[in-house]
Amino acid sequence: MSQSPQLTLEQIARLTGGELLCGDADLVISEIGTDSRAPFAQNSLFVALDGEHFDGHRFITEASEKGAAAALVSHGDPLAYPDVALIRVDDTLEALQRLAASWRGLFDVPVVGITGSNGKTIVKDMLASILAQEQTVFRSPGSYNSQIGVPLSLLGIRPEHDIAVIEAGISRIGEMERLEPMIRPTLGIITNIGLAHAAGLNDLATTAREKLELFANLDDRPLIYPAESKPLGRYKLPGTPVSFAIAPGKDAPGDEKTDADYLVERVAQTSQGFAFSVQFPDGAHHPFALNVPGRHNLANAAAAIAAADTLGVSVEAIREGLAAFELSPLRLEMHTTQEGVTFINDAYSSDPVSARAALSVLEHYAGQQRAIAILGDMLDLGARSTAAHRQLGQVVAHTGIDRLICYGERAQTIGKAAQTAGMTADHIDCVDSIDTLHDLLERELRSGDVVLFKASRTMGLERAAERLLESVAPARLYIDLNAIRDNYHAIRRHVGDGTGLIAVVKSFGYGNDSTRVSQTLAREGVDALAVAYADEGIPLRKRGLTLPILVTNALASEADKLVKYDLTPLVYSRGVVDALRTQARRFSKRVHVHLEVDTGMNRVGLKPDETLSFARELAAIDEIVIEGLMTHFAAADDPDEDAFTRQQIDTFKTVLDQLHAEGIHPNVVHAANTAGAWRFPDAHFDRVRVGLGLYGLSPTPAVSRETDGTHAALAFTTRIIHLKDVAAGETVGYNRTWTAEQPRTIATIAAGYNDGFPRFMSNGGEVLIGGRRCPVVGNVCMDVSMVDVTDVPNAKVGDEVVIFGHQGSEAITVDEIAGRGGTISYELLCNISPRVRRIFVRQ
Length: 843
Description:
Layout: H1 9-16, E1 19-22, E2 32-33, E3 44-47, H2 60-65, E4 68-73, E5 85-88, H3 92-104, E6 111-115, H4 120-131, E7 137-139, H5 149-154, E8 163-167, H6 176-183, E9 187-190, H7 204-212, E10 222-226, H8 230-233, E11 240-246, E12 262-269, E13 274-279, E14 285-290, H9 296-310, H10 315-324, E15 333-336, E16 342-346, H11 352-366, E17 371-376, H12 385-397, E18 403-407, H13 411-420, E19 428-431, H14 434-444, E20 450-454, H15 461-469, E21 476-480, H16 481-495, E22 500-504, H17 506-510, H18 514-524, E23 528-531, H19 534-542, E24 549-551, H20 559-564, E25 568-571, H21 574-587, E26 591-597, H22 608-619, E27 624-631, H23 642-661, E28 668-670, H24 674-679, E29 687-690, H25 701-704, E30 714-726, E31 731-732, E32 738-739, E33 744-749, E34 766-769, E35 772-775, E36 785-788, E37 800-807, E38 810-812, H26 814-821, H27 825-830, E39 837-841
Parallel strand pairs: 2-3, 3-4, 4-5, 6-8, 6-9, 7-8, 9-10, 10-11, 11-12, 16-20, 17-18, 17-20, 18-19, 21-39, 22-23, 22-29, 23-24, 24-25, 25-26, 26-27, 27-28
Antiparallel strand pairs: 1-5, 12-13, 13-14, 15-16, 15-39, 21-30, 30-33, 30-37, 31-32, 33-36, 34-35, 34-37, 37-38
């Protein structure tokens, strides 16, 4: 291409079929974004999207304040936004997609389109690592694979790129038909066809058919696919099919010979991952190493190898690129130290897009606390490097970041640009070594600070993070905020557009830090939060959350807190109402309350025949507003008690009708908990209350069978702290309850019943080490436990131990542990000790 393409406002208007209402037609747009909460680069375009539960046009001013120079809109008065250039279109999402398709058409480079039920991002990153050995590669950032993410990805392609690797994901029928004209792949990859996100795709056959739509115009070009996929076998594959598979044998199940163009054979587990060979179509066998755990990644590697070879990459480059591939263990891991400093660790990679996203996360989670950004060099940017670092500095200056620390030579440009853009010099530091950075942080950090680590991996910034993370106990509870987000949307889809959602974050988020979970859900559009006591709601208010917060145990003695912090009490006694009235007068406020009707739980609440008279009394009090009405199901999770649950619903409806007849109309009516939300559609009313379901967990198997589209968000891990060989006949642990029948290797792990590893796991409970189930031997102690690791090759001190969660292809669930102890998952989660560090993970 002889000249670099540029997008002016005039061109954008033309390509989108829109009208430039105001602004400089020749203004060159640097970037395009859709999130008004994220900082914008100079001369960016904000796309005001409309969704089921939001209107992006409400945030045009906010986007302008974050640096956007223009906005793509479908309605609104231009006079309301005097500082923003406006392009009006009929539909902003369709316009964004048309713009991306046009931009894609300007580049005559190979475009790899990747789809599948699982592994899309990993295959994309593996292939990019391989291709980067010989070419300049553009790949979709993060998991940008949606109707919004794909066009934003495509708009990142630049003339210096030799090839683009684009990820495409769908959750509903018909979505791929909109993605295909934008991506127009010249080589396709299907990773697999499974049940992930199947809620909107009905079954495996439909899922396969919809995924194949991405390759409808592939013509005779290659399509990489898994040879043994039965759902794909139902269809004539487009393009020129190229298959991959794992050979059967002791390392992969199966009795028959597998026929595939690229066949993984001779798999051997190593200390870091796997060594294996691949038979290529010409019959040659080539050895490879994969330095990541999990046997499922062998199939991902096979797909990447097949694609790379088909694209003409040399075997040596494939070998080097695959060996260099690493999973991202540092993808926005968040935790708080004993000293009260919160770390956001994203020191795995950095580029202009992910750096701005990380700054947005820092600003969001810091709330009113001091936000400190440690930014290192962004590598592999070529000729764009200086401009990209300068632009990032301008972004920092226009965010709510309180302090900037620049690490590395290129990062100094970030600091200089931030100062030029208005950030004061005494809030900017530049350091050139990890030791200097560590000394600076030891001097400057104080309780409440929120600190981001962000740089390209080869800068070694993670070493500074690791020094500070040494205070983190080996026992850790990982909370996947992406999974919580996905589970929230799965539940919203299930209950429908007319029903809102109250997120129950009581007991500090079922044993987690409810603040970060609540902040995540607030970003996704949750309608309200619910806690058990006022003291659980106050930290949420102090973090800047303005959503309604329902307090289910409102005490008269805490009426001052309820009113002062605008919490919504659940009331059913006159004593609490009188206390609220007194405090409302003191603070000159009106208090919004919800009434609870006891329809059969017999715990708290108004009897059905008492509710109307109580509501009449409250309606006569000026300081009190009856905002909501609710009840609590006793057994919505138990099919044997469905008749009783329906009786509760009928009783509740009768009370609601009585209130309406009296002219009392609560705005928010809610009855269903997690079980009710999934199992009783007639109990959805205005909102549902969901707690455990947000974590991808279910109170009973009857509920779990209904929970399409959700997945577990929690993992409890620790480490091996000691290894010891015991001889036959020796005993282990207190009271000598376990005796070795033959020589065994015993690992001591850093988790005991004080951490929430229950004592009923003694002598037979299992944990995961090295991807294998290992039995607990002897009694679980207060601070440690002992595990038989004889069958784990190369087990060593420091190895990860999974108490519940996934490791490799194995998994232990919370429900499995609860079943062993005859208890419920709620109790296990709430009993995880504060000593166990909570680490929040999000992409």
